[in-house]
Amino acid sequence: MEKNPVIEAMVTRRSIRSYKPDMVPQELVDEVIKAGTYAASARGNQSTIIIAVTNREMRDRLSAMNCKIGGWKEGFDPFYGAPVVLIVLARVADRPNRVYDGSLVMGNLMLAAHALGLGSCWIHRAKEEFESEEGKKILKDLGIEEEYEGIGHCILGYPDGDMPKAAERAENRVYYIR
């Protein structure tokens, strides 16, 4: 059977934790974002939003917030040098499936990045960032008035180093009922 490129991307994608400082061209960022907007969502409600951060000052501000929430030593970069941060948030009002919807968006973003030759990694603590007063102010400054929950940050960039090898797949993870 011929290899399917979508399944091959799923099998070969890895989280990247070291990036070159080179900025990703806007066309590639937009292509990754487009893939994220096509993720499945409960009842087709499309209640997620994506904030694309390519501004270095804002990227570093978010990194510092994330570092503090994570409890790391000041100066640690939880975004591993990635120049682009795509923040996925989901509308809270009447959206009990928001975390699942946002997780599907994150998956699409990471697979699209890999398909385009970019590295990516899901970085947590978006929920805590955007529950904070500073995070709420960032949203307000963008004109986002509704209540949103941070789901995750998809960092993007060009990998600095070799692609990590996949860990062996754990046994006993699939059961069949025939």
List its salient traits.
178 residues, alpha+beta, NADH Oxidase, 4-stranded antiparallel beta sheet, 6 helices, 4 strands, 38% helix, globular
What gross morphology would you assign?
globular
| Regions with little confidence, pLDDT below 50 for 5+ residues | none
**Would you tell me the structural class of the helices and strands?**
alpha+beta
CATH topology: NADH Oxidase
CATH superfamily: NADH Oxidase
Helical segment count: 6
- The gyration radius over C-alpha positions equals 17 Å
The count of DSSP E runs of length 2 or more, i.e. the number of strands, is 4
The largest sheet, given as strand count, sense and whether it forms a barrel, is: 4 strands, antiparallel
Order of helices and strands: HHEHEHEHHE
The average pLDDT score comes to 96
Strand order of the largest sheet: 1-2-4-3
* Number of discrete domains: 1
CATH class: Alpha Beta
Distance between the termini: 24 Å
CATH architecture: 3-Layer(aba) Sandwich
